[in-house]
Design goal:
The complex is a heterodimer of chains A (142) and B (383). Chain A is of the alpha/beta class and 142 residues long. Chain A has helices at residues 20-29, 51-59, 80-98, 115-132, 138-141; strands spanning 11-16, 38-43, 64-69, 105-109. Chain A has a 4-stranded parallel β-sheet, with helices on both faces. In chain A, helix 3 (80-98) links the parallel strand 3 and strand 4 (105-109). Chain A is flat. The model of chain A has no long low-confidence stretch (mean pLDDT 95). Chain B has 383 residues and is of the alpha/beta class. Chain B has 3 domains: 3-95, no CATH class; 103-254, no CATH class; 259-381, Rossmann fold, CATH 3.40.50.1860. Chain B has 21 helices and 7 strands. Chain B has helices at residues 3-15, 26-30, 32-35, 42-50, 54-57, 62-65, 71-75, 82-95, 107-117, 148-154, 163-175, 191-196, 199-216, 226-234, 237-240, 249-254, 277-281, 286-293, 323-338, 349-358, 375-381; strands at residues 141-143, 220-223, 245-248, 269-273, 299-300, 343-346, 371-374. Chain B has a 4-stranded parallel β-sheet with strand order 5-4-6-7, with helices on both faces. In chain B, strand 6, helix 20 (349-358) and strand 7 (371-374) form a beta-alpha-beta unit. In chain B, helix 11 (163-175) packs across helix 21. Classes of the chains: A alpha/beta (142), B alpha/beta (383). Chain A binds chain B through residues 50-53, 55-56, 58-59, 90, 93-94, 96-100, 136-137, 139-141, and chain B through 102, 104-107, 110-111, 113-115, 117, 119-124, 149-150, 153-154, 156.
Chain lengths: 142, 383
């Protein structure tokens, strides 16, 4: 479905407290320009982001969901992001059956130092979701 | 309590016969959750409803912990519909957004609600192989596959293979010469949402499914899942009318046993877990047993609590999962082990999911380890 004129995607970004959220902060204090169409939800660790969180975001009409955390090996809780991968794969398995496009859901590792990378990931993801248009679930939910 | 609440509760009390309660307490004496130490007391919930005490009846944690297994309904001397009462109270509590936290972070409820929207084209039939003969839209028999495809994807850590039950169902129907309808557009039957109190989403699902079934031209809908069978038969009336016939797979097969070529001999000893939805809700206890009896060489040993007295798997509606549910599951698995059976056979994928979850406990290990299969799998293996 093509996007209506003037439409901007609604994106939910889950970010861990120690790396990705701090990465977003770095982007901010460095004044790096990026797309603003996302709402960020901070969690202590990406391992906390269970399928229910992501599915609820889609249920409520999110056009895209980005799950982010520390790079593998850098987790503040040692292996939380490995758990995040398991949870993400499980989520992806069910959204695929449900019929949501794979590209509406993305997993990215962003460290606290990677402000520029944060901005780049957000820009790329926003453009990808914009190209897909509104989520089939958002059409009625809005 | 508001006046609206009072009217609502007295209406519910009248509809579910809670008014008839004379406080004998058999319900609480029977309730598995009460017995194991949980907060639920069916008797207190009935009386609180009659007294229009919304704080207990609607907002208390008790109604969420009810398994709606129907054990109390069977013993009530004045036919109070306690499971119906709990469902109605959960609807009130849902409308007021006073719901308890759902297990698995509410993921399963979200999935069901997204299906209810009807704006997605699901990819739910990847499990169909060339050896399984089905039709995507039309046929005399509609095989209701339920949510097994989602369960296997969602519970990889339990090694869930509930799709094997669905595959076995197709093979059995094929063996009877039927090419069942297996639709890519089937959505969740709505059982769990209805029992969670979300009637609006249930009705959205039911309308879509009813249209799908009617367009298929099916004479009978066959469900291997006890919950789907219960819901389609008892709750789809307003959407589906009186036809087609709704049957649990075990009922359908039991009527056609002589046509089913069950030839492969086995020496295995099994026991049978009656799903609460099949046994107490639909009153079907003989059909699965007659199927097991027809498998050459198979021996069925009953558990201490069987048939209409069977203990439920304690997790049916994804509404509550706690230490009491776990206790009941462990207790039930020990009961199954005590029969000396090699396989615990059931007739509902949910029973398998919840027992497998309990079996993950490393401290109990061998005490509760037992192979589990659906009655459809046992039969399909004998073909």
């Amino acid at each position: 479905m093509s996007a209506p004129e003037g439409w901007n995607p609604r994106i939910v970004v889950f970010a861990c407290n120690w790396c990705s959220y701090a990465g977003a902060d770095t982007a901010g204090v460095s004044r790096i320009q990026h797309q603003p169409h996302f709402r960020m939800i901070r969690v202590m660790c990406s391992g906390r982001i269970q399928p229910g969180f992501v599915l609820r975001a889609f249920e409520k009409g999110a056009d895209g969901v980005l799950v982010s955390g520390c790079h593998i090996g850098d987790c503040h809780y040692l292996f939380g992001n490995e758990r995040a991968v398991e949870q993400f794969e499980k989520t992806r398995a069910v959204t695929r059956i449900l019929g949501l496009e794979d590209e509406r859901l993305r997993l990215e590792w962003i460290s606290a130092a990677e402000g520029a990378r944060f901005a780049q990931v957000i820009d790329q993801f926003t453009e990808r979701v914009r190209a897909l248009g509104p989520s089939p679930l958002a059409r009625e939910a809005r | 309590m508001t006046r609206a609440h009072g009217e609502r509760l007295s209406d519910i009390a009248a509809r579910t016969r809670a008014w008839a309660c004379y406080d004998c307490g058999k319900c609480s004496a029977t309730c598995p959750v009460t017995r194991i130490g949980g907060a639920l007391s069916p008797r207190r919930t009935v009386l609180s409803t009659n007294l229009l005490h919304a704080d207990v009846a609607v907002y208390g944690a008790e109604i969420a912990s009810c398994l709606t297994c129907g054990a109390c309904d069977r013993r009530c001397p004045v036919q109070v519909d306690f499971t119906g009462l709990v469902r109605a109270l959960r609807e009130v509590s849902h409308e007021e957004d006073a719901q308890p936290e759902c297990p698995h972070g509410g993921a399963l409820q979200s999935l069901m609600r997204m299906m209810a929207r009807g704006t997605l084209q699901q990819q739910r039939l990847d499990w169909l192989g060339p050896d399984l003969h089905t039709d995507p839209a039309h046929g005399a028999v509609f095989l209701w596959t339920g949510c097994t495809v989602y369960y296997d994807a969602f519970f990889p850590e339990y090694g869930m293979r509930t799709l094997d039950v669905t595959r076995a169902a197709v093979r059995l129907l094929n063996a009877l010469g039927q090419v069942p309808v297996v639709s890519p557009d089937e959505v969740c039957c709505g059982h769990d949402l209805l029992w969670n109190g979300d009637r609006a989403s249930f009705e959205a699902l039911a309308r879509r499914n009813a249209a799908l079934i009617q367009e298929s031209g099916a004479e009978v809908v066959v469900a291997p899942c006890a919950e789907c069978a219960r819901t389609l038969r008892l709750d789809y009336g307003p959407f589906l009318g009186s036809s087609p016939r709704i049957q649990h797979l075990s009922e359908y097969l039991a009527e056609r046993l002589s046509d089913l070529p069950l030839v492969r001999e086995t020496t295995r000893r099994v026991t049978f877990q009656d799903p609460c939805r099949l046994g107490r809700h639909l009153g079907v206890v003989d059909a699965p047993r007659s199927l097991l009896a027809a498998v050459p060489g198979l021996e069925l040993v009953e558990m201490a609590h069987a048939g209409l007295n069977a203990t439920c798997c304690a997790g049916g509606t994804w509404s509550a999962c706690d230490r009491y549910a776990k206790k009941l599951q462990v207790e039930r698995l020990k009961e199954a082990k005590a029969t000396g059976a090699e396989i615990l056979v059931t007739a509902c994928p949910k029973c398998q999911i919840h027992f497998r979850c309990a079996q993950k406990d490393p401290n109990l290990g061998q005490d509760i380890a037992i192979e589990m299969q659906d009655v459809a799998q046992v039969l399909a293996d004998a073909l």
